[in-house]
Design brief:
Chain B: This is MIP18 family-like domain-containing protein. The complex is a heterodimer. Chain A is mainly alpha-helical. Chain A contains 11 helices and 4 strands. In chain A, β3 and β4 (about 265-270) form a beta hairpin. The chains are: A mainly alpha, B alpha+beta. The interface of A and B includes residues 60, 61, 62 and 157 of A.
Chain lengths: ~300, ~110
């Protein structure tokens, strides 16, 4: 291991195994990969309910292919963790549901309309594509970088599915309102995906060790640069616009603000603090326990049969 | 009466290079999915195409992309797509550009 690991990485060297890491690098990488694995895996349970709304068989097959991809991506992240010595069975099957690190946005069932699946793919998979694309381009951890070649292509497929469906649904009088309704509650959830604003972060080991290459706000901007013009081009209203003077996208609502979980409505007239947001993330959303139980159902069932002999 | 733009088939092939397979960003032309492109009558373009699999869930998506793309070309008023299963698609139908992309992504051919 290099004596000054950060400098060694800054020279462009790649970390390949535990032997190349210090404890801080290892912990940061492990925490990052747990977030990635949990996010990929739990997205499936959030989306699964949307299948009942599929307008035709091919739409359903495509959505299933996307869910299959996500399970594959989760498998890749957990496999990388297993190679680092983590106990994956304990992570997936023993953790308290509220200890999972997927985004709060995945603690809801997206079963309101087919438009919710479209917006899920166009917004949340786009967020994943931005975050993982950054890791793919910049990460100092070689095994992850190589594994992301496949993930990157597949996430783009998910994003395109979402955008194709959003455009199609906007062209139909009967489904236009569904899209706008989905966007109204899902857009701010996606903006939150990128975490704390940079000015509130005291230190950033992920960046210091180049686990990832860009800051939260840079990645959020990248997402806004893609999503806002796309929504405007198909006639969807979003609470953000390009600010000529600042040369960046700005939100048209206080960030953060209160979210009414029951009504799935943002209270733009009720600003809150990031401490409030973190508390909400930690409480987890309404479906967290149900989804984790669903994930474990087969595992538990097999264990029960084994015990019964 | 509006002057009818002459549709150049070569331009249509070129335009279709922008239509990518949904799962892997490789053009449908490089993948060898487009069997024939012809102009029939005024403003009507006919596409003979196939898919890599009869169970492809993205058929409407790809056809919609092709339609949108060709309708942007001067003189094109209508696009008719015929799906053909004979001859069946095989990996041999991919050109070198497509093979190169798959190699870059570490996908065996």
């Amino acid at each position: 291991m290099a004596t000054d690991l950060k400098a060694w990485i800054a020279e462009g060297n790649t970390v390949e195994s535990r032997a190349d890491m210090n404890e801080e690098y290892y912990r940061t990488l492990r925490d990052t990969l747990i977030i990635v694995g949990d996010t990929e895996l739990l997205s499936v349970f959030a989306l699964r309910r949307a299948l009942d709304n599929a307008p035709n068989l091919n739409a359903k097959i495509t959505a299933l292919a996307i869910m299959q991809d996500e399970i594959g991506h989760a498998h890749i992240a957990y496999r990388l963790l297993a190679d680092l010595g983590e106990d994956i069975d304990a992570l997936v099957y023993e953790r308290e549901p509220r200890q999972f690190k997927h985004p709060y946005a995945f603690d809801f069932a997206y079963d309101g309309s087919w438009a919710e699946l479209a917006v899920f793919n166009a917004f949340f998979d786009r967020a994943g594509f931005v975050l993982l694309g950054d890791a793919y381009a910049n990460t100092s951890y070689g095994p992850w970088k190589r594994a992301l070649a496949k993930v990157d292509k597949e996430e783009l497929f998910h994003v395109r599915n979402g955008e194709v469906w959003m455009r199609t649904l906007m062209e139909n009088e009967e489904t236009r309102a569904d899209v706008q309704r989905a966007v109204d509650w899902m857009f701010p959830l996606a903006v939150e995906f990128f975490g704390l604003p940079d000015n509130l972060k005291t230190r950033n080991t992920q960046l210091e060790y180049r686990i990832k290459g860009s800051t939260n706000d840079q990645l959020r901007q990248k997402w806004l640069r893609e999503v806002v013009p796309f929504c405007e081009s198909i006639g969807v209203r979003v609470p953000a616009h390009y600010d000529e003077e600042k040369g960046e996208y700005v939100l048209d609502y206080p960030f953060p603000c209160h979210f009414d979980e029951e009504a799935k409505q943002w209270r733009f007239d009720q600003p809150c603090t990031w401490d409030d947001v973190i508390a909400r993330f930690k409480r987890r959303g309404p479906k967290c326990e149900e989804f984790v139980a669903e994930l474990r159902k087969g595992y538990r069932e097999i264990a029960r049969l084994r015990e019964a002999g | 009466m509006r002057e009818q733009a002459t549709i150049e088939v070569n331009r249509l092939w070129e335009a279709l290079r922008a239509v990518k397979d949904p799962e892997f960003p490789v053009s449908v032309v490089d993948l060898g999915l487009i069997y024939a492109l012809r102009v029939e009558g005024e403003g009507r373009v006919v596409v003979d195409m196939t898919y890599t699999s009869t169970a492809c869930g993205c058929m409407e998506w790809i056809e919609e992309d092709i339609r949108r793309c060709l309708l942007q070309e001067p003189g094109v008023e209508e696009v008719i797509i015929n799906v053909v299963w004979d001859p069946p698609w095989t990996k041999e139908r991919m050109n070198e550009a497509a093979r190169q992309r798959f190699r870059e992504w570490g996908i065996s051919l």
